[in-house]
Amino acid sequence: MMKLINLLTLSISGICFSQLKTLDISGFEIQHKKKPKPIILRIYTKWCSVCKMDYFRINQDKELISLINKHLYFINFDAENTKEKIIFQGKEYNYLPNGTSGVHELAIAFSKNKNLPIYPLWIILDAEGTLVYYHEGFCAPEILKENLKNWYQIYSENK
Fold it and tell me: For residues 77 and 141, what is the distance between their CA atoms, to the nearest angstrom?
């Protein structure tokens, strides 16, 4: 019984101390102006099972979470349920209803496939807002971590 209690305590503390710090996209601009950092924009939908699996696996990788939390802003953006107007990088984006559903213009703006965005969509922008990484679909934590490490090393050297 004591082993079970210890295991649960470790599991709960691991969950509490290693979570992605996410910013709401509507409050992002203010934070970014105070302290410019690169941005990870993860565009997803609630119905997407790959998005759920992707996010779960990312949240299990403590090294990746630490890397993201320390060096980047992380924005989790629901492409179909975010209905408010958003101003991002000086441009206005709105929700586009389509019958009983719809999609936000921000998702379309970042997607290479303008007719049907592929989810999840991983976008990394440097501190100046330049696209440095684009990935559609499942993104394994190991691949994301390796790309972030390589890119951040180059980015830091050029600053």
Answer: 18
Helix (H, G, I), strand (E, B) or coil at 110: helix
Say how many C-beta atoms besides its own lie within 10 A of residue 157's C-beta.
7
Please, which residues have CB within 8 angstroms of residue 31's CB and are 6 or more apart in sequence?
A: 23, 73
> Is the previous residue joined to 120 through a cis bond, with omega within 30 degrees of 0?
yes
Percent of the residues in the chain that have a pLDDT greater than 90, as a whole number: 53
C-beta separation of 73 from 38 below 8 A: yes
Report the predicted TM-score, pTM, of the whole model to 2 decimal places: 0.81
| Tens-digit pLDDT profile for residues 28-60 | 888 888 889 999 999 999 999 999 999 999 999
State the Cα–Cα distance between residues 57 and 60, nearest whole angstrom: 5
Would you give the distance in Å from CA 135 to the centre of its chain? 11
Asked if residue 101 lies in contact with residue 80, where contact means CB atoms within 8 angstroms, the answer is yes
Query: Tens of pLDDT along 4-36?
Result: 344 444 444 444 456 888 888 877 888 888 889
How far apart CA 28 and CA 37 sit, in angstroms, is 11
